[in-house]
Specification:
single chain, alpha+beta, paralog of FGE (formylglycine-generating enzyme), three-stranded antiparallel beta sheet, 9 helices, globular
Length: 522
């Protein structure tokens, strides 16, 4: 056979082989496309009707992967713990009786709020509320909190908040009210960023966010935020519309799960739980060792970790009388004043400086006997129940001059048939300011500083003795006041599974449903 025929026949065989393979791949691809096209939509276990289907009204049931971790936060897996005293009551306040309670999983800032973070906030206020400069002025930290009658602290008055040398140091001189306002502002800025990141809304902050037209999460959900730049390619859909081109939705709703819950101050129980740091001490389902501090040792010097770290001080606090940071050439904690927020070593949750550096505000109103009165689950004193202000037609009234919705206290008349609460203000529940007998009372300003404006703060600081590094210790201060050793960090509720979004086996719930094959609990 001529060589040319052999080559042609060989090439023809190759061509047929390639064609057969291509046909096989085309069949596989076609089958995959067919299966994808026939993929079942989620079906209601109540009615059998299909979700996200215009045929059945387009009731919305989104795919949801779990709550996103907000900027700066770490997950603190909840559980039960013994709240209260872990150290001898040196001051004989008798205000931290031991009590077993349970907290839900929550998120907490891995570090204290820094000067730079707080400057982000006041800069935004000054740029946005051009018609209300007093908003900016009220938010500024009280730099004069550094002054002492017999101490020269004027350099810190001048430089601590504004100079870049201190930008990563914890903000101080901030009252409870200011810290609460910061947390509310942070909620709106984070959700604003998420909407822009997901391509739902394109924000033009430099031109659009002025006075009451700034983004507010609650006003947005109530359809009271007029954004200028909508995204025509928004990923959201309205399945109640028949045609695909008409299903494009421009506004996120709560059911999407896109917007995060509110940033806030941690409750006293949450803060103490995170500071106790028991997650590394669990033996099966028990905690066998009662710790004084957030670490296992009874000394503040490291003795059982890396060799280079042994002997170092764990936290920024006063080691001895007049000793704020050690001696030159051999500084112990090196914290004459607060140190950067990521100083020292994090605890097992990944939280920095829970024991020292600056003390921290919590959300609670102070009462000496709160630990005896608390609920067993999510204990908190300070509830004031509110509801939105509505007009005569039942619609939400227009937002205020700062772009926020208006709320009012609930009334007892509205709650006649309720058993869980009646009044709006529950700050003094079971521990009223005036007792029924009329003989025992908190005589504020005379014999006591306790009233409904006294807020709990926790932890030791650069100017405190180690006694306050024990998580169960409690102190209080009026919510409008501030100190040079007092800062804060934010928290956020964990919605859904307490163990987070991980699919690893150890992160599953003990019982996660019925297995379809075995018909047994997983």
């Amino acid at each position: 056979m001529p060589i040319i025929q052999i080559i042609c026949r060989y090439n023809k065989q190759i061509f047929h082989t390639v064609l057969q393979k291509n046909n096989a791949w085309m069949m596989v691809a076609t089958a995959m496309i067919g299966f994808a096209g026939c993929a079942r939509q989620p079906v209601s276990k109540t009615t059998g009707q299909t979700y996200n289907d215009p045929k059945w009204g387009g009731y919305y049931n989104p795919k949801y992967k779990g709550q996103e971790t907000g900027p700066g936060l770490v997950l603190v897996e909840g559980g039960s713990f013994t709240m209260g005293s872990t150290e001898f009551d040196l001051l004989h306040n008798n205000d931290n009786t031991e009590r077993t309670v349970t907290v839900n999983s929550f998120y907490m800032d891995e570090a204290e709020i820094s000067n730079q973070q707080y400057k982000d906030y006041v800069y935004w206020l000054g740029r946005t509320f051009v018609s209300y400069p007093e908003v900016y002025q009220k938010a500024l930290p009280d730099s004069l909190c550094w002054r002492r009658n017999l101490g020269f602290n004027e350099p810190f008055v001048e430089y601590y908040f504004r100079h870049p040398s201190y930008k990563d140091y914890p903000v101080v001189g901030v009252s409870w009210k200011q810290a609460t306002e910061f947390a509310q502002w942070r909620t709106d800025r984070v959700n604003e960023y998420i909407l822009d990141r997901e391509g739902i809304v394109h924000f033009k902050i430099e031109t659009d966010a002025v006075d009451d037209n700034n983004f507010n999460t609650r006003a947005y959900l109530a359809n009271q935020f007029d954004f200028v730049s909508k995204n025509k390619k928004s990923p959201l859909k309205d399945y109640s519309k028949k045609k695909n081109k008409d299903q494009r939705r421009q506004k996120a709703i709560m059911e999407d799960g896109i917007l995060l819950p509110e940033y806030r101050l941690p409750t006293e129980a949450e803060w103490e739980y995170a500071s106790q740091n028991n997650i590394g001490e669990v033996n099966f389902t028990n905690i066998d060792q009662k710790k004084i501090y957030g670490w296992t040792d009874y000394t503040v010097r490291i003795k059982d970790q890396k060799e280079n770290d042994r002997g170092k001080i764990r936290l920024n606090a006063m080691v001895g009388k007049g000793d704020m940071g050690g001696i030159a050439g051999g500084l112990n904690d090196a914290g004459f004043v607060p140190t950067p927020v990521y100083s020292y070593w994090p605890n097992s949750y990944g939280l920095y400086n829970m024991e020292g550096n600056v003390a921290e505000w919590t959300m609670d109103v102070y009462r000496p006997l709160s630990l005896e009165d608390f609920d067993e689950f999510m204990p908190f004193r300070g509830n004031v129940f509110k509801t939105l202000v509505l007009d005569q037609y039942g619609a939400i009234v227009d937002k205020d001059s700062l772009g926020r919705l208006t709320y009012r206290d609930v009334t007892e008349a509205e709650n006649v048939n309720r058993r869980n609460y009646k009044k709006a203000d529950n700050m003094g529940f079971k521990d009223e300011l005036n007792y029924n007998s009329g003989e025992m009372t908190y005589d504020y300003g005379v014999s006591s500083l306790i009233n409904n404006k006294a807020r709990v703060y926790k932890g030791a600081s650069w100017s405190d003795r180690l006694y306050y590094a024990s998580p169960g210790t409690r102190r209080f201060l009026e919510e409008s006041l501030s100190q040079s050793n007092l800062g804060f960090r934010c928290a956020m509720v964990r919605i859904g599974a307490p163990t987070g979004n991980s699919k690893k086996k150890y992160n599953k719930l003990p019982s996660s449903g019925i297995d379809k094959k075995t018909k047994q609990l997983r």
